[in-house]
Structure formats: structure tokens, C-alpha cells
Amino acid sequence: MSLVPPGDWNPQGVADLEPRAWEALRQTAQSILVTAGAGAGKTEFLAQKATYLLQTGLCPAPKRILAISFKRDAASNLAERVTKRCPPKQARRFTSYTFDSFAKGLVDRFRAAIPEPYCPPAGYHIVTPRRQDYADFLDTYNFQGVNAQQIEREIARVRLPVANSGSELQRAVAEYWRAQYNDYGQVSLSFPMLNRLVELLIRENPYILKALRLTYPVVFLDEFQDTTFAQFQLLRTAFGGSEAIFTAVGDDKQRIMVWAGAMPDAFAQFERQFGAQRISLISNWRSHEELVRIQHVIANRIDPTVEQPEARAVRLVDGDVAAIWEFANEDEESDCLAQWIYREVQAGNIEPHDVAILVRMRADEVEGKLSPAFNARSLRLRNVARNVGDIAIQDLLGEELTQVLLRLMRLGVAERSPENWNAALRDLQFLEAIDPSDEARQRRLQERLQVFVREIRRTLRRLEPIPDSATPSARAALDFIGAQVLRRAFPSYQRQPDFDRVWNGFVLLLRECLAHAETWSDALDDFEGLGQVALMTIHKSKSLEFHTMIFYGLDNQTWWSLTPDRTEELNSFFVAFTRAKQRAFFTLCIERGQPVIWIENLLAPAGVRRVHF
DNA sequence: TGCCAAATGGTGGGC
DNA sequence: CCATTTGGCA
Predict the structure, then answer these.
(1) Model confidence over A297-355: pLDDT tens digits?
(2) Chain C bases under 7 Å from protein CB?
(3) Which nucleotide's C1' is closest to A561 (Cα)?
(4) Which of A262, A319, A342, A590 is positioned for an S-S bond with A257, CB 3.0–4.6 A?
(5) Residues A265 and A410 in one domain
(6) A220 with A80, same domain?
(7) Residue A261's closest CA among A133, A134, A149, A138?
(8) Residue with CA nearest C2 C1'?
(9) Strand spans (E) along A224-294
């Protein structure tokens, strides 16, 4: 395969990159920290840099790029973009993991090399302890001076081996490890524990360390502002002092996970310990100029040294693009909100799914307050954080199982849908690992799909669009693929309970949608959230974007901790605001609480006014 | 059981 | 920060 000289390389699949992105892309001699604000295209930048390194041979075979993200969808999204931009042979050398899958992979591969007494048996179990579990442990083993949050945090901080002496906290951690290995009839490990095991393994085993460093001379880190102490320490043990070149990407103005264990100063530590150069991207491809100007006022308050971003999106709406809406009471608030969205939809300005309602906390409470007013106007509000069975709707929609089955079912209702047909064919090719150049097998695949489409059409005509049809219809799609094939193809479905969780969620949500729908087509639209206003917390909205964003409750009761000295809260406010592509509104209800005056004062000079509804 | 004080949860994610 | 739960004690 011929390589492209670095000087001749062009971005793949996009017109061009901003000058700062070019600079960050070509910097391959030194670790860099790419500060990419809201809408700067972080993932695309990483995909382009990977493509550059692979296509030019700057990352030559058999060396690989290791990309580490936090969430599964971020990791798979990045991998997918690189696959689209590179020839398969090169794309295969791009390894995209989540932090935890990277750690678990190493534990599983080199388990036997983990020093005693920490070497886990092959059949260890993964557990996800909640606060209460830690509290129960502390109670059972009589550690009275330690609380659940302390021990949770300490487990992710302490290096192994941990001595059963010293402070009560340290003894509690030592006892916790012992108990997880010995007291429950099976060895139960949490993700932070897996992380600590890997850290121990590579610290103590020079061969594995060397192999890791030889394999991955290039390391990408996504959403770096949310790195935890344990993750940072693992990176240091794995790559500190090696030749590895890091490209870390993130935005410390969007750091909203410190309360859950993210490092408060990951950027500064990274610059210091890895000698990283900082490069800031300044384009904002998401929001138009007026919104970007307001965003910058908030950004400037978070970090006075921040550069003014350049808006690259076009304004498409008339009227206010940002305002604080004030209501006398909550009933009026719900009613006006529903009314406003209804009118916008009627006027043809937006579809319901272009709007998101964001809340600080307690999405289900807000759902209860808003739903009646929405229903009264035949608008549907969907709380995407709500669970169907054991999975949140938002997570369910991103699952591979959902995507694959939904496409097949779409083929059963649409008259002609080349888009779904091609997508379904691609799914099958992948699931059955068929070589695209094997024309005979391709043809057989097309024939099989054709037969299936005829069958599923018959099935859906025979089954009425009622809740009880959910199971048989979904089952028909699943049986065509074969549950075993699906589970083999996606590692996350290999454990039966994980597969069942997603499958049950799929059927449950389909049931719900069929309860409201007139036709199969409507039900599938409902399933995907078409025609529905999404309701979610700020934390869940991160990395998403919406035409119009409405923040529910800018009062000091809902947002009790939004004070000038609580930076993380201001970051949350910033994250919420920057989700908007075209418009951002905030609701205020005097019945619920007083306005957050300092935020109003901050935004007023940028033209954000309080409007009495 | 009733009363008052103290503690706690709320915002999340990973195989 | 505030609503709710838990804990201690009579």
C-alpha cells in the first residue's frame, strides 16, 4: 500500500481544517493538549489525526494508535470515523478503547502475571458497587471513622499492594480488597479495582510494559478534562518517560465530573508531567455568531484567558436567540412552554425532536410537571433518562442491537427504503463477517434479505400495532439475524445478562410505543424519538446538540449551588448553554425560587433579557 | 410512638 | 441548598 508524503496529505471526508487543527495534527514530535471548546469538532480532529498518521506512515506498520475514551459510544464513534477515512489495512491499526475495556483487556490477557495476593482467578466477577454497598461493607467490618465516599475514592487512589496498617481509611481499603477476594464465594472486582490491578501489573512486569510501549507509540485521549486520578496514574505508569506521543483533547470549561472523581487539574498535571504543548482550537461549528458571543461571556468568566471562538454556523431563526422566561407559577410555566413549542412546530420552524429540555437534577419530577401540558397539545415529552427495564432510553437508542433490529423492522413497514436496505445489508455483512469482494456470498446475502423483507412485511401485516405485538415482531427481526450471531459479533453482548438487559429494554420500549401508535410506522418513529421533545439532565446532554435548548429552572432553588465560587456549577451551566445550535432559553418561576441574579447580570450585557410571559 | 437533631441524596460511567 | 430519611432517646 502506497504512503502519502506528509506534505501532500489532505483531510479525508471534510473540506478543510482550521489552521490550529493543522498545527495540532502536524505536531507529531511532542505530546500536545488540544483545548477544544464546545462544537470545535474534537472527535473529527482525532479521526483526521489518526488518518494522517496512518496514511503518511508516521505511525508505520506494525505500530498502532491507542485511542482511549470514557464512554463506549465515543470510542466506537471515533473508530467508525477512522474506518471510513482509511483503507481497512491501515484502519485496523487504530485501536479505540474505553478506559475500562483497555484495563479489563490487559487483566484478562496477562492475568497470570498479576502478583499475589492480587492475581484474580479466571472466573472473576465484575461488580458495580453503589454507595450503599460501600456503606454496608464499612458497617459489617466496623470501620466507623470512614464513610462510603471516602473509601470509594481511596480505592481508586491507592497503589497496590495496600498494607493493612496505617490510617483507618487505609486499613479499610486493605480489608476491602481482602473481602472482595475471599468473603463472597467468588472474586468480585469493580472497574477501579481492575484499573489498580493493571497499574500493578505493568509497574511490576517490565516485559508487558515494554510490549505495550512498543505496540503503541501514539496515544490519543478523548474528553481529557474528565480523567480520574486512577486513570491518570495508569497512563503515567504505562507511558510516562517512554517515547509515546500523546494527543489529549478536551475542554476544562466542560469539566463537570469532579464530584464523581474526575481530577480537578488534569490539564495542568498533563502539561507538567508529559511536557505537553497546549493548542486551542477556535472554531465553533455548532452555534451561530450571536450564541457564540454569549457563550464566550460565560467562558470568559470560567477562564479569563480563553480566546474568543469563531462561529462557523449560520443563524437560521428570527427573534430572540437567548432569553430568560419568567412565569408566575409552575402551571403557567408548563402551559406556556408547551404552547410555545406547539406554535413553533405549527409555524414549521422546528420539529419537536429539535427541542431539548434540560434540567439540573430530578428529570422524572420535571417530567411529571410538564407532561400534562404537553399531552394537552398532543405534544410528546420523552424523558430519555428514564429506564425501560434496566436500561435508560438514551442508552438503549445507542445500542447496536437497537440499530440493527430497528433497521430490519423499518424494512418491514416502508414501501421502499434504499437507505435502510443498504444499512441492513452492511449490518449483515459485518455480522456474518463477509468479505465485500466475495460476490457470490454478497448475492446470497441480498437474496436472504429479500426473503426476510417479504416475511417481516407479512408478519407486520398480520400483527396489529398493539403492545402485545412487540415481542413477536422484535423476535422475528432477532431470529433473522440470530441472537447467537449478534452476541458473537458484539463483545458487549457476550454476557447473557448484558444481552438480556438490552433486548428486554428494546421490547419494553417497543411495547410502550405501540400503546400510543396507530400504525407500525408511527410506533417505530416514536421509538426513535421522532416528534418528541427530549428531556434530560445536563450531564446526559453532554456531547449532544439541539436546534433549540430550553433550560428548566434557572431559580436558586433548582440550582442551589450555582454560586460564583462553585466553578463546577458554572461549568454545568456552560455545558447546558453550549448544547444549543440556534436558540437557548431559560425558565424561571418565582413560585419555585428567586432568580440567580449574578448569572442574569453576567448575561445581560450580552443581550440576554428577562421576558415576562 | 413521637420528637428533634443529624445525616444524606441529588448530577455518571465503565466489561 | 433543601427535602427527606435516619438515629437517638424518652
Answers:
(1) 999 999 999 999 999 999 999 999 999 999 988 999 999 999 999 999 999 999 999 99
(2) 1-3
(3) C1
(4) A262
(5) no
(6) yes
(7) A149
(8) A557
(9) 245-250, 277-281, 283-288
